[in-house]
Amino acid sequence: MVLMIEIAGKNRILAGVLFAYAVYMGESTFACIAMFVPYWKDLIRIIYVPPIIFISYIFLLKESPRWQILNGWTEDAKSILLRISTVNNININKQKLANMNEEDLKKQFKIENYEHKESYRDVLKSKEILKRVLIGAFCRFTASFIYYGLMLNSVYLPGNKHTNFMLSTVMSFPGELISMYLMNRIGRKLPMMYGYFICGLLCVASAWIPEGYVWLKISLFLFGKLLVSVCFTGVVTYTMELFPTSIRGTLIGVCAVASRTGSILAPLTPILKTVSLILPSMFFGCFAIIAGALLTLMPETKDLPLMDTVEQIERSTKLRETRRRGINTTDEESNDLM
């Protein structure tokens, strides 16, 4: 059981990368189709038929066992855990799992008991949670806004628009591998901070490069796209680890809405070129630099257990501040966070 929990933690980033690769395959496929299907109505018909398959996900996808345990669905959680162990060839004591009650499972998953379900009111009372929500939402907005904005504006680069669009989609693939390596090796916070900062500088630089320096302009643009793809997956994983289990789904939903808002606004950025040719890239650069600066206020979450309640988040914040000031804490306070 402990082995399963450790594997789940280590594979969290890998799962995000695999999901992102599926998205990038779709983008690259779309770029290839667009080369041979120039009429936009035919193109729309082609790309909107496959989503019908998503209806089958209702029957294929299962709930998180941690969420089920937290909400009292003990038998369903045990069933999912058995299925996970079978599919992944993990040896566990099935008889021991079958005999576990709700309290045993909570202890195994290091889930604290709490008597009330936390709501928006609890979020609003916690300054730490509010800070995490606002910065997390802004970073996800920025990642989507820049990611899709660069992709759409790639057709305005010097050269063939189909080739440039294809290159902008391909640059996402190495970005994911870089994200997985750095976030497992260094941590979540620093790679994203520097990723946003450097992406912002590249966007600004590419805007001011004259059209005559074709390869330099395109190269800076594409490296910016690579770095924002690093941040895109990174910030999704990071926001999942920032929030407690009791309200994680709700707060991730808030961040997801911010992300979708960024992707909705991104197609409007080419209109800015009617005012100034450099305006879209300047917008991307400024937003990226602000996101990088805001991340300096956030905690590192690498190798830390997922928190279950707002109270745990508050205690962990106080403990971190105490350690920062060089004040010794008791073992009991430290164990409260595990």
Automatic annotation (TrEMBL):
One GO cellular component term: membrane
Membrane-topology descriptor: Multi-pass membrane protein
Entry annotated with the keyword Cytoplasm: no
Protein name: Organic cation transporter
Source organism, top-level taxon: Eukaryota
Organism, scientific name: Parnassius mnemosyne (clouded apollo)
Record's subcellular location: Membrane
Pfam families: Sugar_tr
Keyword check for rRNA-binding: no
InterPro entries tied to this protein: MFS_sugar_transport-like (IPR005828), MFS_trans_sf (IPR036259)
Cited PANTHER family: SOLUTE CARRIER FAMILY 22 MEMBER
Molecular function via GO: transmembrane transporter activity
Transmembrane intervals: 12-37, 43-61, 129-150, 190-209, 215-238, 250-271, 277-297
Region (Disordered): 317-338
Keywords (A to Z) from UniProt: Membrane, Transmembrane, Transmembrane helix
